[in-house]
């Protein structure tokens, strides 16, 4: 079955530091890949997505590239801010209709001033 | 973008009572909605898939008589936690899919935090 593996957190960074959150996946076929963000006390929001190999999703300074050869979708940001503190979820869907989305366990990011 | 709204955002109830949580798609029609449960420091666990006009499909291990789901219209799904107990306390989140069926992108409600005393 499908699965998503994320690096365990929490990740603590100083403001303006470089961020990488690793994500690898296992899926049949050609899944779509997502990063969702959950701010404290809120539901999930889509941060970025990529629907095919070599696509790069980007939003709010965050980027992730769909790497089929390494089955990875690592999240990066060049300079984090305190407001980026949240839990980040890597996810995939296998593209077959209104399908279930498989989530990773989430990585908590804390950015300190 | 597509908006999904949940209500209430927080609810506290006594053990043995039932609680209803609503999930609405505000600017699109959602034939399918999903209900998740999130425990502290854990990922989302899919509880059930709610289909408009038909019975919900429950994931293995989820009690369908405990968690009643009704998808009465294309914009509303409800989750009723019946005879709630303290172990049902959790963060419940709904989501809906809009647009192309093959993108898999989901839009999430704000979540509902249930506390059972």
Description:
The complex is a heterodimer of chains A (113) and B (117). Chain A has 113 residues and is mainly beta. Chain A contains no helices and twelve strands. Chain A has strands spanning 3-6, 11-14, 19-21, 23-26, 32-38, 44-50, 56-59, 62-65, 75-77, 86-93, 101-103, 107-112. Chain A is globular. The N and C termini of chain A lie far apart (41 Å). With 117 residues, chain B is mainly β. Chain B is 0% helix and 52% strand. Chain B is built from no helices and eleven strands. Chain B has strands spanning 4-7, 10-13, 19-25, 32-38, 44-51, 57-58, 67-73, 76-81, 90-97, 106-108, 112-116. In chain B, strands 2, 4, 5, 6, 9, 10 and 11 form a seven-stranded mixed sheet that branches. In chain B, β4 and β5 (44-51) form a beta hairpin. Chain B is globular. Chain A binds chain B through residues 31-32, 34, 36, 42-46, 49, 51, 89, 92-101, 103-106, 108, and chain B through 6, 31-32, 34, 41-44, 46, 49, 93, 95, 97, 101-111.
């Amino acid at each position: 079955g499908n699965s998503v593996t994320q690096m365990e957190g929490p990740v603590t960074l100083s403001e303006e530091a470089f961020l990488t959150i690793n994500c690898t996946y296992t899926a049949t076929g050609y899944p779509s890949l997502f990063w969702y963000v959950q701010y404290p006390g809120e539901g999930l929001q889509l941060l970025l997505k990529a629907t095919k190999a070599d696509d790069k999703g980007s939003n709010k300074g965050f980027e992730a590239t769909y790497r089929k050869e390494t089955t990875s979708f690592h999240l990066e940001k060049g300079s984090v801010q305190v407001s980026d503190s949240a839990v980040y979820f890597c996810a995939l869907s296998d593209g077959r209709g209104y399908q279930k989305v498989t989530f990773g366990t989430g990585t908590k990011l804390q950015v300190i001033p | 973008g597509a908006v999904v709204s949940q209500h209430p955002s927080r609810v506290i109830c006594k053990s043995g009572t039932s609680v209803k949580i609503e999930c609405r798609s505000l600017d699109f029609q959602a034939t399918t909605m999903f209900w998740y449960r999130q425990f502290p420091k854990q990922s989302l666990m899919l509880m059930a898939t709610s289909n408009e006009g038909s019975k919900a499909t429950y994931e293995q291990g989820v009690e369908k008589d405990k968690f009643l789901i009704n998808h009465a219209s294309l914009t509303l799904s409800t989750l009723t936690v019946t005879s709630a107990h303290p172990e049902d306390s959790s963060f419940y989140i709904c989501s809906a899919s809009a647009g192309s069926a093959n993108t898999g992108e989901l839009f999430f409600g704000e979540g509902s935090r249930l506390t059972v005393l």
